[in-house]
TrEMBL record, chain A:
Its EC number is 6.1.1.20. Belongs to the class-II aminoacyl-tRNA synthetase family. Phe-tRNA synthetase alpha subunit type 1 subfamily. InterPro entries: aa-tRNA-synth_II (IPR006195), aa-tRNA-synth_II/BPL/LPL (IPR045864), Phe-tRNA-synth_IIc_asu (IPR004529), Phe-tRNA_ligase_II_N (IPR004188), Phe_tRNA_ligase_alpha1_bac (IPR022911), Phenylalanyl-tRNA_Synthase (IPR002319), tRNA-bd_arm (IPR010978). It is found in: Cytoplasm. It catalyses: tRNA(Phe) + L-phenylalanine + ATP = L-phenylalanyl-tRNA(Phe) + AMP + diphosphate + H(+). Tetramer of two alpha and two beta subunits. It is an enzyme of class 6 (ligase). GO terms for molecular function: ATP binding; metal ion binding; phenylalanine-tRNA ligase activity; tRNA binding. This is Phenylalanine--tRNA ligase alpha subunit. Residues 118-310 form the Aminoacyl-transfer RNA synthetases class-II family profile domain.
TrEMBL record, chain B:
HAMAP family: Phe_tRNA_synth_beta1. It is found in: Cytoplasm. Keywords: Aminoacyl-tRNA synthetase, ATP-binding, Cytoplasm, Ligase, Magnesium, Metal-binding, Nucleotide-binding, Protein biosynthesis, RNA-binding, tRNA-binding. Belongs to the phenylalanyl-tRNA synthetase beta subunit family. Type 1 subfamily. Its main location: cytoplasm. The lineage of its organism: unclassified sequences, metagenomes, ecological metagenomes. It catalyses: tRNA(Phe) + L-phenylalanine + ATP = L-phenylalanyl-tRNA(Phe) + AMP + diphosphate + H(+). The keyword Cell division does not apply. GO terms for biological process: phenylalanyl-tRNA aminoacylation. This is Phenylalanine--tRNA ligase beta subunit. Its EC number is 6.1.1.20.
């Protein structure tokens, strides 16, 4: 019987070794090791053996034969599976550089982008963001800001008037400063806000001026506010927004709604200067007009253009391009 | 305003026109708030440029634009240069830039050949030597000028600098050199002195009487008669300063008048006394339609708010504070003048200037505010300077100094608290420090008690009225740069409001969906709103730049359609744009109606694209209390009448619409593609404050899917069918999808088939076939009530 077992084992091993695919291999394994396979029928003959020792010896031989076939099948299956996976992978080749397409993502407006960057810097410095209407009353745009009717300083702005109410009573705001007055008349100090927004001037558009453009305004009202706090805040903003290599300076200037007033300039790391905006201590008349006691509270304010920041940041040479809504412009950024 | 360094030096020793010193003075001016726009160095020596005599000139047959000039530079050798100017003759002395000279503009003079003949230098104009703006030809010097002399030495020109200042409205005093010098002397700690000497002995009494009729407009009018005048050219030094200051020299009388204005900031006017009717002045408001030909030869017609200078016969001879009349101008034969030195109320001048369209050096000063008490110094300087060219000048006794109620007080004071100064400027100055800072600029103070200063406000500083104005002066003279820098922190911390954060999120979602942000003009042409299908009143600009920008937009749609049309015309079709911006409509409140809108326009896309974009935004923002409502009414202006729906908040507020632009509107805007659109009131949507979504336990039991297709009339919105299914299926419906819409054979015209997949699941058990069948029947019944039949 031992010869029969050896023979069956050898036949099975040969079949397994000759299998060309995993499927065929599994088929051969089933044929040779299955319930109706030669080794199974040999196992059925064990009962007929005369002695316990013989039964034991033959049983062991049968188990060894089955194990040898299984082991050979597993080893061959691993080889065949690897070959087949290689063939599959080779057949699935893709050149991913064929699949590059222009991104479908939309493009933010440069002004919005600069606007949000500025907001974020001031938020980091502890400011909230205030908003106000674009059409304003004369009172908020001028009178509350220490410019009574027919004040000569009103001519510093080329005002666009709106036909509403009494002639001259309603304007397209010439600056974001009326938001200062709106905040001060509706909120209790302490106030730490910036007010970005759209402003309007009766000016013809050219490469550096637009009749409609954007400003950001800052206002702080608190106890014991000093000129040093103004200078320090401008300096902190300068470093946070432009980078640590930049510094700022204040130069005396004039605005009706601040006193002392200043222009502020940014010094680039190469030593050149960028004139940025105006600022100053909130004029006592402005605080008083907004119902805040100038003896108890003090404040400072500052403001500058957003469009110019976007223009400089992206090297746009003509402001009008930013408002062309031409996708050849929009899609560059 | 042009300020000349040598002129400033008449008041204090600021130093010469070396590069370093000019830079130092410019920095001082900037630190004082007298912003320097530009600095021009003039008359600096140009080594290599010497005087040379023209020996002869010669044309070359092949050279049309240049000729040959032969010169003697005093060294006995004949030099030859090519020259493009022809204004010299043999014998003239001219500036010759010899080889190797570096010109003020940086040009290097090299040996250059024209037609094979070398040029041994260059002849120079006054501009090329940076001594004046005169570039009309080569500078010609007197024939007896020694040869070979450095050019500036030959001209007697000292190096100088011109600072162009951009003055703020609060510094009218700096429209004269004296005011600038006063500030600058204080800054550098230099002694400040006013040049000139008192009037000498006066001549016999001769008056030109003055009547101020309108006392509210003219505060002071001084007239003084001067005789012995011989009209001639003024001295070269004066002509030079006037030229550098930007004024054309005319004659000694006019030049002295201008010089005094530029020096002490007091406009003044000399009338020929022989032609002054009645020999006297009347200052009064104009009569309606009264007219006068001014010095510039233009006839001006007046209204009663304009102020006139009239002669004794009440005939107008000048526009007060703005410009003199042509017929009273002094002439070459003038020998006796009546000099007007006056103070006019600023606001009145400021109103006449724009209405007359007439701005002058005088009006610019009067409307900002001139020192009413510098008049006496002005008269003194006028006489002193005119006497240089008119040695026989006599100033007559009998000057008339008419004063009226509008004349500001000479002595104004304000109380300044040292504690306030130090608190506002973060300094610790003593009373005496403050007094010392202020005194050099004429803010003389007296310490009445410790910590309190009574400060005199100088008459040349009309802007200064109260304590805060004085504090600004202290800060300015202390130096803004020397004030420390500190940072105050908000006790509350910074941040965006929830609505502001949501606005940013809306933008992000749209960008992610491939929609780009546009910023069309907020101004529209009249008729744009109507072209967009939107009738009704609009908000108009009272003083528009151009008629095409005279209306404020009542909707963002016209602007986006214009942008789409523009891009289409530049071969960019199917652009997707959005805008977040305000629209404006007439209203009855203090201000017109104004609202923040979100408008999205998708070119080349049909209405469903707008629905899809809306659903993305709605989901991202958690606006679960909003829905799309089929429009039952007459439609939405400007939108496709059968392809639109409304956006509503569940409390019933309609906040906008979506769909497609009406084809007629597209045609009117020249857009050829279809345009899907969403237009919503962003302000109302951002104000929605979604509740945090609460966790719901999901069922562990198996679910069953049921497909139901209904044939239903087109008039019944799909959303109504879905709602009926939701009600019919009740709580076991966990998901509902409209997976197919079919129109065509098998479905009657005017109807369509809507196929829904329902996923049913109970929280506590496995649904039985009987349960599912019951739900199916209830849904079919519910849709049946809407007229739908199971397909």
């Amino acid at each position: 019987m031992i010869e029969d077992i050896s023979a069956a084992r050898d036949v099975a091993l040969a079949a397994v070794a000759g299998a060309q695919t995993v499927d065929l291999l599994d088929q051969f394994v089933a044929e040779h090791l299955g319930k109706r396979g030669p080794l199974a029928s040999l196992k059925a003959r064990l009962g007929a053996l005369p002695t316990v020792d013989e039964k034991k010896a033959m049983g062991q031989a049968l188990n060894e034969a089955t194990s040898a076939v299984s082991a050979a099948a597993d080893a061959h299956r691993a080889v065949l599976a690897a070959v087949e996976r290689r063939a599959q992978l080779a057949g699935e080749r893709m050149d991913l550089t064929e699949f590059r397409r222009p991104p479908a993502r939309g493009h933010a407006h440069l002004v919005t982008e600069a606007w949000e960057r500025l907001e974020d810097v001031f938020i980091g410095l502890g400011f909230k963001v205030a908003e106000g209407p674009e059409i304003e009353t004369d009172w908020y745009n001028f009178e509350a800001l220490n410019m009574p009717p027919s004040h000569p300083a009103r001519s510093m702005w080329d005002t666009l008037f709106v036909e509403h109410g009494a002639p001259g009573s309603t304007v397209l705001r010439t600056h974001t400063s009326p938001v200062q007055a709106r905040v001060m008349t509706t909120q209790e100090p302490p106030i730490y806000v910036v007010a970005p927004g759209r402003v309007f001037r009766n000016e013809t558009a050219d490469a550096t001026h637009m009749p409609v453009f954007h400003q950001i305004e800052g206002l702080v009202v608190d106890r014991g506010i000093s000129f040093a706090d103004l200078a320090g805040t401008i300096e902190a903003f300068t470093r946070a927004f432009f980078g640590s290599g930049f510094t700022s300076r204040l130069r005396p200037s004039f605005f009706p709604f601040t006193e002392p007033s200043a222009e502020f300039d940014i010094r680039r790391p190469d030593g050149s200067w960028l004139e940025l905006g105006g600022c100053g201590m909130v004029h006592p008349n402005v605080l008083a007009a907004c119902g805040i006691d100038p003896e108890e509270w003090g404040g400072f304010a500052f403001g500058f253009g957003i469009d110019r920041m976007a223009k400089e940041y992206h090297g746009v040479d003509d402001l009008r391009e930013m408002y062309s809504n031409d996708v050849r412009f929009i899609e560059q950024f | 305003m042009n300020i000349i360094l040598s002129w400033l030096n008449d008041f204090a020793p600021f130093g010469g026109a070396t590069d370093d010193n000019i830079e130092r003075v410019a920095a001082g001016l900037n630190s004082l708030g007298l912003a320097v726009e530009s600095v021009q160095h003039v008359g600096a020596p140009v080594p290599g440029v010497v005087t040379a005599r023209v020996l002869r000139t010669e044309r070359h047959p092949d050279a049309e634009r240049v000729h040959r000039v032969f010169l003697d530079a005093g060294d006995g050798t004949e030099r030859h240069v090519w020259c493009g100017a022809f204004n010299m003759s043999p014998g003239d002395v001219v500036p010759l830039a010899t080889l190797g000279t570096v010109m003020p503009d940086g040009r290097d003079i090299q040996k250059r050949k024209i037609l094979g003949i070398a040029s041994e230098g260059m002849l120079c104009s006054a501009t090329e030597l940076a001594i004046s703006e005169d570039h009309s030809g080569i500078l010609i010097l007197p024939g007896d000028t020694p040869l070979g002399l450095p050019i500036m030495e030959a001209l007697g020109v000292e190096p100088d600098a011109v600072f162009e200042l951009d003055l703020t409205r609060n510094r009218p005093d700096c429209w004269g050199h004296m005011g600038v010098a006063r500030d600058l002397a204080a800054w550098f700690g230099l002694p400040f002195t006013v040049p000139g000497r008192p009037l000498g002995p006066l001549g016999p009494k001769h008056s030109a009487p003055v009547t101020i009729v309108d006392a509210d407009r003219c505060g002071r009018f001084l007239s003084v008669v001067m005789s012995g005048i011989a009209v001639a050219e003024s001295a070269p030094w004066m002509q030079r300063r006037l030229s550098l200051a930007g004024m054309r020299p005319i004659s000694n009388v006019v030049d002295v008048s201008n010089y005094v204005m530029l020096e002490v900031n007091q406009p003044n006017h000399a009338y020929d006394l022989s032609t002054l009717g009645g020999g006297s002045f009347r200052i009064r408001r104009a009569a309606p339609d009264e007219a006068l030909v001014t010095l510039d030869g233009v006839e001006r017609t007046f209204v009663p708010r304009d102020l006139l200078i009239c002669d004794g016969n009440d005939v107008p001879i000048g526009v007060a504070g703005i410009m003199g009349g042509r017929d009273s101008e002094i002439s070459v034969s003038t020998t006796t003048v009546a000099l007007e030195v006056a103070w006019f109320e600023p606001e009145g001048i400021g109103q006449s200037v724009p209405h007359l369209g007439l701005r002058s050096e005088a009006s610019a000063r009067f409307e900002r505010g001139v020192d009413p008490y510098v008049i006496d110094l002005a008269v003194q300087r006028f006489a002193e300077l005119l006497a240089e060219t008119c040695p026989n000048l006599v100033v007559h006794e009998g000057a008339v100094d008419a004063r009226a109620v509008s004349l500001p007080d000479e002595q104004r004071t304000t109380r300044v608290r040292t504690s306030r100064v130090n608190a506002l400027l973060a300094l610790s100055l003593a009373d005496s420090d403050i007094a010392a800072l202020l005194e050099p600029i004429g803010f003389v103070s007296e310490c009445t008690e410790p910590g309190i200063l009574m400060v005199r406000l100088p008459s040349w500083r009309p802007d200064a009225t109260g304590e805060i104005d004085v504090i600004e002066e202290i800060a300015r003279l202390y130096g803004y740069d020397r004030i420390p820098k500190t940072v105050r922190k908000s006790p509350e911390g910074g941040g965006l409001t929830p609505a502001q954060k949501r606005r940013r999120r809306v933008r992000e979602v749209l960008l992610g969906l491939g929609v780009s942000e546009a910023m069309p003009d907020v101004f529209l042409s009249p008729g744009d709103m109507e072209r967009a299908g939107m009738q009704g009143a609009v908000v108009s600009v009272a003083n528009p730049l151009v008629a095409e920008q005279s209306v404020l937009r009542g909707s963002l749609i016209p602007g986006l359609l214009k942008s789409i049309a523009y891009n289409e015309s530049h071969r960019a079709s199917s652009v997707s744009l959005f805008e977040v911006g305000h629209r404006y409509l007439p209203g009855a409140d203090v201000l017109p109606f104004e609202a923040e809108q979100l408008c999205i326009a998708l070119a080349g896309r049909e209405a469903p694209a707008a629905v899809q974009v809306w659903e993305e935004i709605r989901a991202a923002l958690g606006w679960v209390t909003t829905s799309i409502v089929a429009s039952a009414g007459p439609g939405v202006p400007g939108l496709h009448p059968t392809r639109h729906a409304l956006v509503a908040i569940d409390d019933g507020r309609i906040v906008g619409a979506l769909g497609e632009i009406d084809p007629g509107v597209l045609e009117a805007f020249g857009v050829t593609e279809r345009v899907a659109v969403l237009d919503v009131d962003l302000g109302q949507l951002l104000a929605l404050d979604p509740e945090p979504v609460q966790f719901r336990a999901f069922s562990r039991y198996p679910s069953s899917d049921v497909d139901l297709a209904f044939v239903i009339e087109e008039a019944v919105p799909a959303e109504h069918v879905a709602e009926a299914i939701r009600v019919g299926a009740s709580a076991v419906l966990v998901r509902l999808d409209l997976f197919d819409v079919y129109r065509g054979s098998g479905v009657p015209g005017g109807s369509r088939s809507l196929a829904y997949r329902l996923r049913l699941q109970a929280p506590d058990r496995t649904l039985t076939d009987t349960d599912v069948a019951a739900v199916r029947v209830r849904c079919i019944d519910a849709v049946g009530k809407l007229g739908g039949t199971l397909r």
